[in-house]
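Justification of computing resources. Each target in the renewal requires a structure prediction run like the one illustrated here; the chain below, 288 residues long, is used simply to show the kind of job we budget for.
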Amino acid sequence: MRVFLLASFLLGICGCASLPPAVSKQGADPPAEPVAAAAAGQLIRQDFSARLGSGQAVSVNNPYGDVRLRFGGYQDELEINTVAQQPPQAAAILLEPGVVDGIYRIAPRLPADTLIAEGQRLDLVVFVPLGHNVRVRTESGVIESRGIRADIDLHSARGNIAIRGTSGSINAETGPGTIEASLLRAPPGSRQHLATSTGFIVLAVSDQLDANLELSTSAVFATEFSLRVENLPGQEPNKRATAQIGEGKADIFVESRRGEIRLLRWTGFTTVNGKPVDEDEQADTDSD
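Resulting structure tokens:
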């Protein structure tokens, strides 16, 4: 599955150069060398792995490209696949993940007093094992999360965010970017939040969400559920809608100051016999 994912990630890209696999600071081997400068337009792939402590949180801060999260299994093993686009004469983006203040941090950086070159970027795919909360930050890069079985906190200054098959609590925020999310049953007692400044939000949920929803925007609501809409004259957002889907065991707040909010009914997956697939199987499917 992971080989297929990486192949898809590199689809349409020619002339890739591979560096030897590396082990992070937590492994038995020395840390990997930073991504090095390459020939004109060359792409450089590099892999890291680490053994996480029980319940150890993961932080990803990548101002140079996209971040894609995938479910990484049950053995506390974290894996990172990177693809760097390195223009000639540009300073290399340095990547040496490791533990800082008890958190496993993935934070690529250019050398001090260096600006990013035209066409330079670094994209990450991070396989996160069961029970490890994740925090992701990007600038204009996409954040995509599939099948994560822990809490996620996603923030992009301008990029789009896509979420599917998360079994934990969700906090997602972007500026003019969009948010698209398909939610499983909300963890009881959780308070989840999805927000943009001007982008639209598409939220797909099942009748088993078991949550109270509060939606706010100055644009329009499009929904397959019944909503109670309250006008808020002179405010931004100027409309608030509420709904309870299933049992109200959690709270989900969805806000876009000027973007459309679409609340859709998600029926989930079924087998060839028409039987519903349970949430664990859905999360596994979403991680492919």
